Amino acid sequence: MKNNKSVIGNMFHNNGRALGSMGYFALLMLVFLIGAPEAWMRPNLHQSVFVMMPTLIFLTIPLVFLVASGEIDLSFASTYAVAAYVFAIMAKSGIDPALCILAGLLTGTAIGGLVGALIVIFRLSSLVASLGVLFLLRGIILLLTNSRSITLLEIDTHWIYPLLVGKFYGFPMQIFWAAIFVTFSYYLFSKHVFGIHIHHVGDNSVSAEQMGINVNAVKIKAFMFVGFGAALGGIFTTLITYTFFPTQGFGYLLLALAAVFVGGTPYWGGLGTIIGAVFGVGIIAYMEIGIVAIGWSGTWRQFFNGLIILLALLGHRLHGERVR
Amino acid sequence: MQPIIELEKVSKYFGGITALNNASLKVNKGEVVGLIGDNGAGKSTLIKTLVGVHSPDNGNIKIRGDVVNNWNALKAREAGIETVFQDRALCPQQSIVWNIFMGKELKYPFGFIREKEQINEANRLIREIGLTSKLINAQSPVGNLSGGERQGVAIARAIYNNAELIILDEPTNNLSLNETQKVFDFVINVKKSNRSVLFIGHNIYHVYDISDRFVILDRGEVVHHLNKEDVQSPEELMKIMRDTIKGH
Q1: Residue A297 is part of a domain; what is its CATH number?
Q2: B168-204 b/e with 16+ CB inside 10 Å = b?
Q3: Longest alpha-carbon distance in chain A
C-alpha cells in the first residue's frame, strides 16, 4: 500500500495527457461507428487514413519537441517542399535516388538549423519569424519551378522505392517507418539527455542555463529535428505520388499543428507527449477522411476539425494549468 | 582544521562606491554560519564574491588554507561551493529526479539516461536531507511540492553536485512556520553530513535558531563575529544589530 497514492498520481502526471488524447480518439471512432457503421467497416477507408498518417506523423512528432522547448515553427510546411524539390530535381537528373533522399534530408535539417539559429541568435519571435520563412521558402520554390511540378515515373525501379513505400504482404511500408520514427522519438524525448534538456529549457530556461545546459543549442537542435521531419514527409509523399508539386506541404501546416495540440502537448513549453501526438494525428487524419467516407459533404470537414480542436483543448484543461 | 573558505580583508569597489571594505569571513567544516545585515549592507556582494561572480579588488581568498588567485565561478564550483538562489531555479513541471540531475545527468554512451540509477540516487539524496513523506518520491513533479520542500530539492541538487559549502540565500522568505521548520530540518541534516551552510536571512529569529555563528555586515564592513554562546536570544542579536547601525 505504501506510496500507492503517489505512484498513481505520478502516473497520471506523466501520462494523463496521452491518455486524454487516446480517449478523444476512441470517442471519435465510436461516433463514426454509430453514425455510419457500414462505411466504417469498409477497409479502404482505413487504408486511406494509413496513407495519410505517416506523413503527418513525420511532421507532428518533431513539433512536439519544439513546442515542449518553448518555441514554435510554421516554416516546416515549406521546408517540406524545398527538401522534396531538392530530392526530385536531383533524381530527375539521373543521380542515384538513395543519394537524392540523403540530400533532401540534409537540406531539410539545414533549413531547420538556419531558421532556429535566426530565431535564437537574434531573439526573434518564433511564430512571426517562421511565418516569414514559410512564405519566403514557398516563394523561392515557386520561382525556381515556375510553378510546374516534376514527375518521377521511373523511380519505382530503384531498390529504395519498395523499401520505403512499397507493400509488404499488402502492408504499406511507410507505416513501418512511421512506427520506427515514433519509437525512436519516444525514447529520444523521455529517456535521452536531449529530450530531457528540451523539457528543462521549455520549463525554465534561466535555471537550465544556470545548471550548464546550452539553451540555444538545444533549441536549434529542436528546429533541426523539425526540418528533418518535414523533409521526411516531403520525400515520402513525393515517392508515393511519383510527383513533386510546388504547393505541396501547405495543406499540412495547420493539420500538423492541430495534431500537436489535440494530442495533448500544451502550448506553454516544458511538457509534451509523443504517444498523445500519435493519437492527435489519428484524430486529425480520421476527421479529414472519415467525414467524407460516412457520406457527409466535404464542406463539413473544416467545421468538424475546428470543433475537435476546441473540444480537445477544453478537455485537456482537466490536466491543469501551468505549474510554477 | 582549515576552514573550507576564508575571506581575508576583502574589498570590492564599483566605480566610486565601496561595496565591501576589508571584510573577513570564514566557514569551517560542518558549521552553519548566519549572515545578517540590513538592505544594502553588502550581503549580495559578499555572496557573489564567495561564489566567484565577483573577484575581489583587494584581499585574499583561501580555500582549505591555500590562497587562490584569479578566483572565478568555475573555481568556486570546483571547490565545492554551491548556491541555492531565492528563486530556487527549479523546473516545476519536471520530476524531482530530473531536477536534481539537471545538466549533469548519468548517461550511457549515446546519451541515453541511466534512469534506475538516477532514481535510486535521487531517493537516497532526498532521504539524506530529510525530504520524506508518503506522497513524495524521486518521480514526483516538483510543482506538487510546497515552498519548503522545493528548497529541499535545490539543496539535494547542491549535494549531488558535491557541495562542501551550501549558500542559502534567504531560503525562508515567504514560507510559513511549518515550511520554515522543514528548511531548518534540511539544514540540520546537511550539517550532520559534515557539510557547511552559509545561511543568509532577513528574519533574525530564523537566522538565530539555525546558526552556530553569526556574521553581521553593515555598509560593506563585517562589524561583528559572534558565537551562539555570546548571544542569549534573538532579541539580543537584534539589539546588537540595531546598535551597530545607530553607531555609524
Answers
A1: 1.10.3470
A2: bbbbbeebeeebbebbbbbbebbbeeebbbbbbbeeb
A3: 69
Residues B55 and B171 reside in one and the same domain: yes
- What cell does A96 get? 542515384
The CATH number of residue B1's host domain is: 3.40.50.300
Chain segment A14-34, per-residue pLDDT in tens: 678 888 889 889 988 888 888
**Do A280 and A259 touch, CB atoms closer than 8 A?**
yes
Which positions ≥6 away from A191 have C-beta within 8 Å? Answer: B112, B113, B115
How much of chain B is helix, strand and coil, in % rounded to 5? 40, 30, 35
At A74 the pLDDT is 97
Rg (CA), chain A: 20
Q: Do A211 and B104 touch (CB under 8 A)?
A: yes
* Whether B205 and B248 share a structural domain: yes
For chain A, the average pLDDT equals 90
Q: How many residues does chain B have?
A: 248
Reported as a pLDDT band with limits 50, 70 and 90, residue A1 is: very low
**A132: number of CA atoms within 13 Å, CB side?**
9
CB contact under 8 A, B94 and A270: yes
Query: How many structural domains comprise chain A?
Result: 1
How many independent structural domains does chain B possess? Answer: 2
ipTM (interface predicted TM): 0.88
Q: Do B137 and A3 touch (CB under 8 A)?
A: yes
Q: Based on the domain organization, do B95 and B195 belong to the same domain?
A: no
Closest CA to A229 of A171, A266, A202, A189: A189
H helix or E strand, kind and range, residue B167: strand B165-169
Query: What is the domain range of residue B222?
Result: 1-20+30-59+72-80+164-181+188-248
Q: For residue B103, which residues of chain A lie inside 8 Å, CB to CB?
A: 197, 200, 208, 211-213
Residues with Cβ within 8 Å of A14's Cβ and at least 6 positions away in sequence, in order, are: B139
Q: Which residue has the higher pLDDT, A206 or A297?
A: A206
| Measured distance CA(A122)–CA(A143) in Å, rounded | 28
